[in-house]
Design goal:
The complex is a heterodimer of chains A (252) and B (257). Chain A is an alpha+beta fold and 252 residues long. Chain A is 30% helix and 23% strand. Chain B contains nine helices and two strands, in the order αββαααααααα. Classes of the chains: A alpha+beta (252), B mainly alpha (257).
């Protein structure tokens, strides 16, 4: 064995050790700074993690593009919804006067809000694009109460890392990290284009986070849970989407 | 075609190559490795891209578009979504979930591979030596000459076979420095989170739906390139050319020139 090849071997060994420990350090740091998505396991885990980590670093405080009123789509497309349950129809018959949003989990004051209460808080609007992962999109003016306002009312505890949100449709629930939950454009939306949010578009109450794709904007919201980990929810992948083969993080 | 270009392997330091000095290497190690990783990535991206496309085989121009608006054009294929009016009486199974996950995962691999290729290409002078046509070659006459010899199905011999001809150089430069960056850019421009951080990435293209449409045409252009590329390899001698991209060497005894 010549000196050259020995040196090569030592260098290769050192590089490999540095690489492996570098990966280890990177994984620890990523976990610490909340850059690992709950669906990081499985064969698509590396891609999901790279995308989520890169976009979270890039977009922590960025704002979704807002449009002028003239750009609002004349015919917003309401995607298919599951058949409405009897519970929903009963609430709908009462013009959603009895619709309740409950908030629990890692909060100081668990509470329940009626639609009227939510509408009594300062309302915000933004004209943003809703883009479906299928490829289509439309622009609408969304009106609602910022999620951060409701979270402030109930008082989230410092260890909170995610907000899970649930639809009246038991098959549809999701969660977001605190960067999205406290983001100024994340709304509990009850209005669209100046009118009450139509049922087809998720009325009476829809989660609206314009930096993520349509399926993250869950319709018919009835409950929020603030938590520090998502393992206890469903199959522990963070939302119903990964259970159906879709990514938890839908910023791309 | 009298240009005396360096053999394509010339940019590799001899110590890094297993090729004896007497047999010139046609492709350096980094070109070969990145070529095949990119090939694999391209096929995966193409198949998953088609699967994603099937969920909405309509294209629009501008910012928005959906089944209630007039498309720029619609592909005459069935869809995996019932609400898309395709004229077919059936709906394809939904493969969008894993297709998207795999598409983005392999896009990462492709971009990182491209990064390695770009750095090595700059570092070794690969772009200047092997891809950029020399001033003497860059003329209409030379272009016509190369085109004519292609049309006569002439196979290059000797020193000529060891370097890329003018048409190859232009095609490779276009793919590497125009189509690849364009397809990455238009892909990122469809990410609502990415464009929130870099709004110009989508506004410069004319909107989200324009980005999607350009992404589609860039992928078509890459498929077209692939077809021509493979046809040329077949004409030039599949065994020797593919072998050269694997081992780096032109199989001298197998070369059918």
């Amino acid at each position: 064995m010549t000196d050259l090849s020995r040196r090569k071997m030592i260098l290769t060994g050192l590089a490999a050790t540095a690489g492996v420990s570098g990966l280890g350090v990177a994984a620890r740091l990523a976990e610490k700074y909340g850059l690992v998505p709950p669906d990081h396991g499985g064969i698509y885990g590396p891609g999901e993690t790279l995308t989520y980590a890169a976009q979270r670093l890039l977009t922590r405080h960025s704002l979704a593009r807002e449009f002028s009123p003239s750009q609002i789509s004349k015919r917003p497309f309401a995607n298919e919804i599951s058949p409405l349950s009897d519970d929903f129809k009963r609430l709908q018959a009462g013009r959603f006067a009895d619709w309740q949003l409950s908030v629990d989990g890692m909060v100081d004051r668990p509470a329940s809000f009626s639609l009227a209460q939510l509408k009594s808080y300062p309302s915000r609007s933004h004209i943003t694009e809703l883009a479906c992962e299928e490829g289509w999109s439309y622009i609408a003016e969304w009106t609602g109460v910022p999620l951060s306002h409701v979270l402030n009312l109930v008082g989230i505890r410092p260890q909170a890392r995610y907000v899970a949100y649930f639809s009246i449709d038991p098959d549809w629930w999701d969660s977001m990290d605190m960067a999205d939950a406290l983001h100024p454009q994340t709304f509990l939306a009850y209005g669209m284009n100046g009118e009450d949010l139509a049922v087809g578009n998720g009325g009476p109450l829809r989660m609206r986070l314009p930096r993520q794709l349509g399926y993250k904007n869950v319709k018919f919201i009835t409950r929020l849970t603030v938590t520090d980990n998502l393992r206890g929810f469903g199959k522990g992948l963070g939302s119903a989407a990964p259970e159906a083969g879709y990514a938890w993080y839908a910023g791309i | 075609m009298g240009s005396a270009q360096a053999p394509i392997g010339a940019c590799v330091p001899s110590s890094a190559s297993a090729v004896p000095a007497t047999v010139p290497s046609r492709h350096s190690v980094f070109v070969r490795v990145t070529h095949w990783i990119t090939t694999l990535c391209f096929f995966v991206l193409l198949v998953t891209g088609i699967e994603i496309l099937v969920s909405h085989p309509r294209f629009y121009w501008g910012e928005t578009g959906n089944v209630l608006t007039t498309p720029l054009f619609q592909l005459p294929i069935p869809s995996s979504r019932a609400l898309v009016p395709t004229g077919y009486g059936y709906v394809l199974p939904d493969q969008n979930g894993w297709s998207r996950a795999l598409h983005f995962q392999v896009a990462w691999l492709a971009v990182l591979t491209g990064l390695v290729y770009g750095i090595c290409g700059l570092f070794t002078g690969h772009f200047w030596k092997n891809l950029l046509p020399s001033k003497a070659d860059l003329s209409w006459r030379e272009l016509l000459n190369t085109l004519a010899s292609h049309l006569r199905f002439e196979r290059p011999t000797g020193a000529e076979a060891m370097s890329y001809n003018l048409l190859q150089r232009l095609a490779y430069l276009f793919v590497i420095f125009v189509l690849f960056p364009l397809i990455i850019w238009t892909g990122l421009a469809m990410s609502p989170a990415f464009v929130s951080a870099v709004p110009a990435s989508v506004t410069l293209l004319g909107g989200r739906q324009s980005a999607r449409t350009i992404h589609f045409f860039a992928s078509l252009a890459l498929v077209l390139f692939l077809l021509v590329h493979v046809a040329m390899v077949l004409l030039a001698g599949f065994g020797s050319r593919t072998g050269a991209m694997i081992t780096g060497r032109m199989g001298t005894h197998k070369e059918r020139t």
